[in-house]
Amino acid sequence: MGESVDIIDLTEDSEDEIEIIEQEKDDDIIECDSEDEERLIFSNCQQHKRLIMQRNTKRIDYDEWGDYQKVYAEIKKRIEDDPILKQHFDFTVLEKADDRVCQMQGIRLHQEIQSFIKKHETPDEVSVPKDVVMLKKAFKDLRNKARYTPPDRRNRIMKNLTLDPQNPIPLYCDMLTIDPKKVKISETMIFDYIDKNKITSDVDIGYEKLVKSEEILIRCDCKKIEGKFVNCFDNPNCPCFNMNQRFQEIQKINAYRQEHEKTQFKAFSKILMRDIDHYFDTIGFCCSSNCECEGCCDNNVIYTIEQKINRFEIYRHDEKGFCLRTRNFIPYGSPIFEFVGEFVDFESVSDRESEDYAFCCFDSAETVLRNFFQKLEFLSSKTRERFHKFFDKKWYVDPKFKGNEARFVSHGCQPNLGMCRVFQGGIGPQHLKCIMISLEDIFPGAQLTFDYGENYVIDQLKDNCLCLTPACTKNTFYKELTKASFEDMFHFFSLRYYYLARDYKSFVVNGRNLKNFEKVLSLYMSAPDHPALVEQRRKNRQSTSTCQ
Question: What is any Pfam family matched here (predicted)?
């Protein structure tokens, strides 16, 4: 899932590398006179992808806040021009963070740290009281790491990696010691961009029969009204909604965490993930384009994904490899994108050497979904038997050769994304979608992260994690965090939201010029007794607490 691709300086080219590049230059390559021609060449000539990316790489000027302002204006216009989005979609920033989100993130952070303490700290270390001053520094350090700040000059490799004008995703290398003309694009970056899972041909005959079965299809006849959102959700006559509800019934409530609500999959509603271990029992079902409503309804939780509202960029600035960050504000509980790739079994993942990319979507050890399918009364005994056989294997979504932007989501010990499964149009393997959901309000510039699991950190990263999210043990002030209470952590997430929201409103929504603001601020700092600065300090003292 994370990208560990090499981009290195070719100041001293190896003979093999020079030979490959020269051979490609000698090939009959059509010169691109337009983006359409380049799109055609890039899509159809696999052997030239790397060379085209090398050719396109150039150093450009970059205005970070100007980019966020531009994206904000585009999304705002898109919403205003679409009657459905205008009525239902809301991406405004509230004055304060939602307490439920801060509570859940505080719980996740507290549990991760307590788990670390049990494994690594001695009783003497645990008994040391917290240092309030150092805890302030720890929280301030984490707040400053909430988003990535790119340089003013960047190496742009691709203007739009997707080649889809409706979903432009630029690709940057911010390692500026590298000459743009000598950037090497490794083979792992040469993949086909797809926005739907691809069912591979190496599946057994039992699986093919399951895929082709008419019994597994579920479609509703709720009539679509032009320009309006159909009310399929809460409609007892809608088979898609009824299946959505049946999936919800298998969710478990964790009394220890004081969770009283089940996750609800409804379009334009917040999807609040209940638990760290929510993946195996948090499943939804949504209407599709094959329904009479055409998926334009409140029972299609991935409607906003299909509209491609959010804007992202892929970048690299250190040894972590390529990462993904957002260029717009994403409210918590939002479906962001699907984790897309080729649908393969465990043996294929091993043969492809895709362990670092593939995500297990069906586990042979999981019993909840296996038992669920066995209890569906509308399935024949033969189809149930095929489902049972299907779950004898582990199945993966592998984006190594065919995938989308989700393959660049990095590991995070305290992630801002979670994943859940949603079926659309039916309950077969081909109808499954692994959807990534925002666990908190995500502001422009934030790197998108997902918890790959403890085994990944130990086996792949060799306990050398570089995510630097709040729960990461490699953080400078991690020891101080182990002394923090849940209340401290809750307040940290509330305060972090306050500062991020303040900057977002000032420099994106209101379009304030950051450079002019910095000049004014420097004048204030040179005159510390200036009345305006004294008043601002007074307000800050009133609005902040010991966690600042």
Answer: SET
Task: Please check whether residue 410 is in contact with residue 323, taking contact to mean a CB–CB distance below 8 angstroms.
Answer: yes
Dig out the tokens for 128 from the structure.
């040391």
- Nearest alpha carbon to residue 173 among 71, 52, 313: 313
- According to DSSP, residue 255 is labeled G
Tokens found for residue 157: 């490799």
3-state secondary structure 293-352: CCCCECCCCCHHHHCCCCCEEEEECCCCCCEEEECCCECCCCEEEECCCEEEEHHHHHHH
For residues 413 and 2, the answer to whether their CB atoms sit within 8 Å is no
Q: What's the token pair of residue 473?
A: 């043990």
**Ranges assigned E (strand) in 393-525:** 395-398, 402-403, 410-411, 417-424, 432-438, 449-450
DSSP-derived 3-state class of residue 438 = strand
Beta strands 192-193 and 402-403, pairing class: parallel
In the prediction, which pLDDT does 151 show?
94
Q: What is the reported pLDDT for 27? A: 43
In 3D, which of 435, 404, 415, 438 has the Cα closest to residue 303?
Answer: 435
Q: Going by C-beta distance under 8 Å and a sequence separation of 6 or more, which residues neighbour residue 546?
A: 132, 135, 136
Dihedrals φ, ψ of 218, to 5°?
-135, 120
Model confidence pLDDT, tens digit, residues 101-141 = 988 888 888 888 877 767 665 554 445 456 667 778 878 88
Q: How many CB atoms lie within 10 A of CB 258?
A: 9
Which H or E element spans position 491?
helix 486-504
Does residue 399 have a pLDDT over 90? yes
For 531, other C-beta atoms within 10 Å of its C-beta total 8
**Residue 548 CB partners (closer than 8 Å, separation 6+):** 136, 139, 140, 495, 540
Cα separation of the two ends of the chain:
34
Say how many CA atoms lie within 13 Å of 10 toward its Cβ. Answer: 17
Residue listed under structure tokens 């290195």: 8
328: which 2 tokens? 């717009």
SS3 385: helix
Query: The pTM is what?
Result: 0.84
Percent of the chain with pLDDT over 70: 78
Under 8 Å CB-to-CB from 515, ≥6 apart: which residues?
none
- Burial environment of residue 480 by CB neighbours within 10 A (0 to 12, 13 to 18, 19 or more): buried
How do beta strands 395-398 and 359-362 pair? Answer: antiparallel
Domain annotation for the chain: domains and CATH numbers: 90-145+476-543 (no CATH), 192-311+326-441 (2.170.270.10)
